[in-house]
Amino acid sequence: MKLLNKRNIIILLILLAAAFPFVIQNQYYLHILTLAFIWTIAVYGLNLLAGYTGYLSLAHGGFFAIGAYALGLLTVKAGFSFWMAFLLAPLITMIIGLVVGLFALRTKEHFFAIYTLCVGYIIYLVIDKWESLTEGVRGLIGIPAPEAIGPISFTSPISQYYFALVVFLLVVLVIYRIIHSLTGRTFIAIRNSEELALSLGISTKKNKLLSFVLSTFFAGLAGAMYAGFIRFIGPEIAYTTITFDLLTYMIVGGIGTFAGPIVGTFLIVLLSQNLQFLQDYRMLIFGPLLTLLIIFSPRGIVGFILMQYANWKTKKKVITSKGHVKEG
């Protein structure tokens, strides 16, 4: 029995994540990793649409902000409990995503990307200018932390870390089930050739819309978690830079790969924190590295590893088959 099989590696990583607060008793690192879990959830939504369906949405940061503001407005202004608002926020985001998707998916390729970029900017303008609702540049202050569930409190950094970890693991499980289901294979068929998918009787419009709506749901969920964790939000979370940050995480990790969002997000978030002393000059490092990665490994780090592993297995089979022929 091989110790380093996929299942054992996953179990080991989960155990390491669960033990981290006890091994590294540093609240700063807990804060950074909690944010990394939240960003990864948003990246999974983007990867489901761009990586598996082939449609790049540049409004993803906007939907992240909708989820955050939905939770903030429901708790601060409407008086909802945190958990009720937390359930409603991604659903509200998904409904808005459905309306946007009905129009956006009439376009294709770069036209779709440009359309969604405009939608993302409109979301930012609405949040920034509608001061009577969103408080504009002042932002929403006093967003409550999750209420206690029985003896379980969510006020300490450790409890917030575990809350983000549990939601993150649930999202990973759901995404895994989606991409390995018939629906996931349908998304991949549309990405590979929409015309061929149509000829096979696949309803591409319905499946593209489903992928888009699911991506907005995960963006809204991540946004709601972010608002509950930071407890203050402003219009800047809807700006296009958030979308491009999420896009960078996805490309570096591996677009269209299952582990890519985790690898890319955690790698860049941790590197960014370690390069804080460079401040605005960080992009002088990330820019060339990202360019080289896109040139030499378009499917990112995970895609490169998978390709090398596939090549190794192919060579191994060839060597094995030659050995059998010589023995015969």
What does this protein structure show overall?
The chain has one domain: Orthogonal Bundle (ABC transporter involved in vitamin B12 uptake, BtuC), CATH 1.10.3470. The protein is 75% helix and 1% strand. The protein has 14 helices and 2 strands, in the order H-H-H-H-H-H-E-H-H-H-H-E-H-H-H-H. The longest helix is centred in the C-terminal third of the chain and has 28 residues. The mean pLDDT is 89. This is Branched-chain amino acid transport system permease protein.
Task: Compose a concise summary of this entry.
This protein has a single domain, classed as ABC transporter involved in vitamin B12 uptake, BtuC (Orthogonal Bundle). The protein is built from 14 helices and two strands.
List keywords for this structure.
single chain, 328 residues, mainly alpha, ABC transporter involved in vitamin B12 uptake, BtuC, two-stranded antiparallel ribbon, 14 helices, 75% helix, cell membrane, transmembrane, Branched-chain amino acid transport system permease protein, transmembrane helix
Topology overview:
Blueprint: H1 6-23, H2 27-50, H3 60-76, H4 82-104, H5 109-129, H6 131-134, E1 140-141, H7 157-179, H8 182-192, H9 194-199, H10 204-230, E2 232-233, H11 240-253, H12 260-274, H13 282-296, H14 300-327
Antiparallel strand pairs: 1-2
Helix pairs in contact: 2-7, 2-10, 2-11, 2-12, 3-4, 3-5, 3-10, 4-10, 8-10, 11-12, 11-14
